[in-house]
Amino acid sequence: MKKAGITIENVHLAFGDTEVLKGVNLDIQPGEFFAFLGPSGSGKSTLLRAIAGFGPTPKGRILIGDRDVVGLDPWKRNVGMVFQSYALWPHMSVRDNVAFGLKERKVPSAQIKTKVDAALELVDLAHLADRMPNQLSGGQQQRIALARTVVVEPDVLLLDEPLSNLDASLRVHMRRELLRLQRQLGLTTIFVTHDQEEANTTCDRMAVLDGGVIQQVGSPLELYDRPENLFVANFLGTANILEGKVEVDGNERRFVTNTGDQLSLPEGSTGEGGNIVLRPQNISISRTQAADSLPGTVQHSEFLGSQIRYLVSAGGTEIVVDQSHRAGHDWIETGADVHLVANTQSAVVL
């Protein structure tokens, strides 16, 4: 398989008077597993389809390798796309579905057989070559759709929420299969999803979109630990956000909440904004007062197996705290007065 990077330069796209992509700029490296992540209506699928050549022609440039593909017909771009519905031909066998693109390209019959056999082996479904699509499970249909796409040796692979029709346990298995297949082929891949867990567990980097604008680009860890704005902080996992201000006294920096509680900020910390972001696992609950702690009251608790999740009223807001569960440890009762101790080394001021 060839490896081609993708460069998106100042792309705008509108449906009528509604602008759905607003000046998108992005570089995706050759061989990278990349994700477009965002809520419904954020523009992620529209951006993917613009790369594939479906829908209105956008303004700006989209380069696959060194070739600008804006305005080219989809079949002239050499991209492979797997749709949410899989789009298998119901009247064709598995083998004929996988062979379809090769036949359209007038590939000799002997080569078609060799390539189809290899593609079916790749997705571990050679034994089902003579079945019809309605005789396959959802996961098997998805793998056939993948085989049909990669058999034509595209420059890039585009996946439009391909796991959304599967049940939860099968989605976990199939995202591992997707990653295995991508790593084996070394194929530049873009995966569109609104499910952060899917993106976190598969992609090298992701772009978080909202309102047709890229909010942040980075690895899953970078975006989770160091969000650049409140949208990213809230979209990627649970975020506790306290409002207040940063105060500086000599070399000391502290965050003062709107209720007057104070949290010391680590040396070298940055950010002068009016919000501090704390993840639930970076807060611990103490029965006694401690330095840099927030007094609060337990409002609710949930047992999640490996964790107990507490909802605590503190600092003028409701704060989610995740505590590891170990046999024999006390469960803090609802209504208890507690103190929240934040690991401000992991906090982000926005």
TrEMBL record:
<dbReference type="GO" id="GO:0005524">
    <property type="term" value="F:ATP binding"/>
</dbReference>
<keyword id="KW-0813">Transport</keyword>
<dbReference type="InterPro" id="IPR003593">
    <property type="entry name" value="AAA+_ATPase"/>
</dbReference>
<dbReference type="Pfam" id="PF00005">
    <property type="entry name" value="ABC_tran"/>
</dbReference>
<dbReference type="InterPro" id="IPR013611">
    <property type="entry name" value="Transp-assoc_OB_typ2"/>
</dbReference>
<dbReference type="InterPro" id="IPR027417">
    <property type="entry name" value="P-loop_NTPase"/>
</dbReference>
<dbReference type="InterPro" id="IPR017871">
    <property type="entry name" value="ABC_transporter-like_CS"/>
</dbReference>
<feature type="domain" description="ABC transporter">
    <location>
        <begin position="6"/>
        <end position="236"/>
    </location>
</feature>
<dbReference type="Pfam" id="PF08402">
    <property type="entry name" value="TOBE_2"/>
</dbReference>
<dbReference type="InterPro" id="IPR003439">
    <property type="entry name" value="ABC_transporter-like_ATP-bd"/>
</dbReference>
<keyword id="KW-0547">Nucleotide-binding</keyword>
<dbReference type="InterPro" id="IPR050093">
    <property type="entry name" value="ABC_SmlMolc_Importer"/>
</dbReference>
<keyword id="KW-0067">ATP-binding</keyword>
<dbReference type="InterPro" id="IPR008995">
    <property type="entry name" value="Mo/tungstate-bd_C_term_dom"/>
</dbReference>
<protein>
    <submittedName>
        <fullName>ABC transporter ATP-binding protein</fullName>
    </submittedName>
</protein>
